[in-house]
Amino acid sequence: MVAFHSHEQLVSAVADATFERPPALVANAHITGLSVARALSAHEVPVIAVDRTGDGVAPPSTHVDFAGEVTYPLDDRQAFREDVEAIATAAGTDLVGFGCMDEWVHALVDTEPDGVRLPFSGRAVIDDVLDKSSLYEIAEQLGVPYPETVPLTPETDAAAVTDRLGLPLVVKPALKREFEEAVGTNVIEVESEDDLRDVVDLAAEQDIEIMAQRRIDTVRGRDHSLASYRGPDGETLSLVGNARVRNPLDFGTSCLVERSSEPVIEERALAVLDEAGYHGISEAEFVYCPDREEYLLLDVNTRPWKWIGLPVAAGANLPYAAYADATDGTYEHEGVEDARWVYLPDYLDLLATADGFRDRLGRGDWTALVDGSFEDTGELTTAVYRPADPGPAYRALRTAVGGEEYYCAC
């Protein structure tokens, strides 16, 4: 376990170290960053985890070599750039940057810190993929189905929109992180024309592009995503994950994900990434629409995400594949196997509180979780809890019983 340093202390600690290969700079330092750190550490990559606060679960991990503070890029991008450059200078070698939330990815791309290699596409390509307006234009060109969508502006006729899409409908931003910062969520369910007008007015005040979508009555357990790393040469390492359980059950975040075989998901996702020219780690999210009897493209996240530990456990170490390309190295894998990923706090919460929820883990799974043997098989992995690396789970427990809340869920 390493201490979470102030920026000055972090720079000093890095300067005192000697690196035989470029360290990875992982930002931010919570659940996703922890999974990235573990994936890279498995290949002996030194990891520097940075964040605006030390309250995340990654800093206490034995797989993090250094942890410390940098300026939050949404507060001051130039200061963020200077902080990162100071770390690179102290390391005496290039860093390989891994942004684990949209704002950190954008900050690395936009500020281009000296001494940092980025294993993903530039801002123009990322925006084409992250921005739902341009993403759905690509999908339309390729014949990839997506939810029925109407752009919203202050001049939009709310009555016409509700007549077309029905009520309730959902409102989403073109770029979700800026909307989430302003509103506190990235999806708003609208029940009336007046509610729709209120959301449009709010978005206009914040200068945020939004859109209305027909609400999809999804089928629990049918959501799928393509987890992939696409290299600059187009070579792709991928796995389809099925979000078997969410918390809340209908529209929550994934807490049990399994490897799945859905060729149409892989085909459609890779077609979109290829058309956009994107390279790097990504998650392409699809939801099953029973009315249309097909999978609809919702989103593409151009970065690691919460359950990225699943492809790693299954044999597709996406973070290390990206690192190897960025450092002119090689990554050889022996194929992809079946695996499952669980985020225990949310899953246990459902078992305790959700009426009618049936446990999808068996006695053998629970026994393996309790005695720690799951760490040796690769068939089941966890987001945070690992007996061989107890610091993150301890940090999560402290937070759950009244410690300082981290500023985002991932």
Automatic annotation (TrEMBL):
Keywords: ATP-binding, Ligase, Nucleotide-binding. Residues 136-327 form the ATP-grasp domain. The keyword Ligase applies. GO terms for molecular function: ATP binding; ligase activity; metal ion binding. The keyword Ligase applies. This is Predicted ATP-dependent carboligase, ATP-grasp superfamily. The lineage of its organism: Archaea, Methanobacteriati, Methanobacteriota, Stenosarchaea group, Halobacteria.
